[in-house]
Design goal:
Blueprint lengths: L1 E5 L2 E3 L7 E2 L2 E6 L2 E7 L8 E4 L3 E5 L1 E6 L15 H13 L4 H17 L2 E6 L4 H11 L2 E4 L9 H14 L5 E3 L1 E5 L5 H14 L3 E5 L5 H9 L3 H7 L8 E5 L5 H8 L3 E5 L1 H6 L7 H7 L2 E4 L12 H16 L7 H8 L1 H6 L16 E5 L12 H10 L3 H4 E6 L2 E5 L2 E2 L5 H13 L3
Parallel strand pairs: 1-6, 2-7, 8-9, 9-10, 10-11, 12-13, 13-14, 14-15, 15-16
Antiparallel strand pairs: 1-4, 2-3, 4-5, 7-17, 17-18, 18-19, 19-20
This protein binds zinc ion (ZN).
Length: 429
């Protein structure tokens, strides 16, 4: 099947050809086989005329807990420890596969409708999330949660088995460590061993809140970054770390030149008063900085446009420099740096040979006025002006259209299931 998208403006995230007007994008099966100026093509099965629309790569959300859409708005204005103990953990203990499935579908719909086509997830009941991913069609990097509690080793082994058994164009399974403060040296070293054996990356929460360092050092010693670097983590094994608000200068020197990417989650960090990560400093040191939403319970949405806007404003403020974090850099955080974070060179950039993961934006809304049909003008509106939900019109993942005009292309009656789950978990309506 060869589908041609004709006539749109395109921001590619490709340094060689960043902006195209009146473009042709030809997709064959799950990939892009041509992107560039309009020309004649042989054997086109379907043409979609998209004059006046903008196409971007699908965004990559590099840190979330997808099914926590179930907990949205449940337990607000609370300190983290109290919130976890009273509002999250007792209710997470009641979750079933079915709840996580419906929570995942809601999260996936929200992501597609705001321009995201891939995400990195850390949660439980991973098979339910994988099923939801396949039922809708979005790209997922699933890193089932690992925390030091009874049975952790079996859990790691199960995840490794799942990774080697799974064959999917949409899903990759990788390893996680919930955090250094919730996983002791035995767990960390076992996960390192398994990551080395399998080539999986490791997804972790790192230095989110100020109190975390003391708790980590009590378990792992003062130079824990250097210690685990020498054992293979951040060196042989790639790591995606969420937050990284409190990385020290010595640690920055190691991590900026390591096999490491940060998932910056500014809204969650603000809401929980964790701090503001100095991402301009990190980027200038050479670190890969991508963007994530964290879970919907601490954000409270999965909209990466909102997140990148916050990242831009906070980042400038933190750097005390309005020239810091130019819009193009922020656009890369949504796209190609996200791809780098998940170690993929075939997503995040619209180029020939890459996967056809792309988003079609209407530029008709008043917030696109005045309409600047230049590369810089497009970045400016996309990062600082657009309302994602009313602008995202159509989404393709792996060459398949999965979302159009407010609707998933698959007909899953998820709403009743989601409501029933919420009622069972929390009681009442
Ligand atoms: Zn998180």
């Amino acid at each position: 099947m060869r589908t041609l998208l004709r006539g749109a403006y395109v921001l590619t995230a490709d340094e060689n050809k960043p902006f195209i007007k009146d473009a042709d994008i030809l997709m064959e099966d799950n990939s892009i086989v041509y992107i560039g100026d309009r020309k004649e093509h042989e054997f086109v099965d379907r043409i979609q005329y998209l004059y006046g629309y903008l196409i971007t790569p699908g965004f990559i959300n590099t840190h979330t807990h997808l099914a926590m859409t179930l907990f949205r708005g449940w337990g607000e204005d609370m300190e983290l420890g109290k919130w976890l103990n009273e509002k999250i953990w007792p209710y997470e203990a009641k979750l079933t596969d079915e709840d996580v499935y419906y929570g995942s579908i809601v999260g996936i719909k929200e992501m597609l409708s705001t321009g995201t086509t891939a995400f990195v997830d850390m949660y439980f009941f991973e098979q339910a999330t994988i099923d939801a991913v396949h039922d809708v069609g979005i790209r997922a990097f699933i890193t089932p949660g690992i925390i030091e509690k009874e049975g952790w080793k079996d859990r790691v082994d199960q995840i490794v088995a799942l990774r080697s058994a799974l064959r999917s164009d949409y899903v990759e399974i990788h390893l996680s460590l919930h955090g250094f403060y919730t996983c002791g040296p035995d767990v960390v070293e076992y996960v390192i061993e398994k990551a080395k054996e399998t080539g999986a990356f490791v997804h972790i929460h790192l230095l989110e809140a100020p109190w975390e360092r003391g708790a980590i050092e009590a378990k792992h010693g003062k130079d824990f970054i250097k210690k685990y670097y020498d054992k293979g983590l951040f060196s042989d094994i790639h790591v995606i770390a969420a937050h990284g608000v409190w990385i020290s200068d010595d640690e920055l020197e190691i991590l900026a030149n390591a096999n490491f990417a940060l998932a910056h989650n500014p809204q969650s960090n603000l809401k929980l008063v964790s701090g503001i990560a100095p991402i301009w400093k990190y980027l200038q040191a050479g670190m890969t900085v991508s963007i994530g939403t964290d879970g919907a319970a601490s954000n409270n949405n999965l909209d990466l446009i909102e997140e990148i806007r916050t990242a831009g404003m906070l980042g400038k403020y933190k750097a005390e420099d309005p020239e810091a974090l130019p819009s193009k850099e922020l656009f890369y955080m949504l796209t190609k740096y996200g791809a780098k974070a998940v170690k993929r060179d075939d997503i995040g950039v619209l180029a020939e040979g890459n996967k056809a993961d792309l988003v079609v934006w209407s530029v008709d809304n008043v917030e696109w006025l005045p309409f600047w049909d230049t590369e810089e003008g497009m970045y400016a509106h996309l990062i600082y002006s657009v309302q994602s939900k009313s602008s995202v019109k159509r989404v393709w993942v792996s060459g398949k259209e999965v979302y159009r005009e407010g609707h998933l292309m698959t007909d899953i009656p998820y709403l009743e299931g989601f409501k029933a789950s919420v009622k069972r978990i929390f009681g009442g309506e």
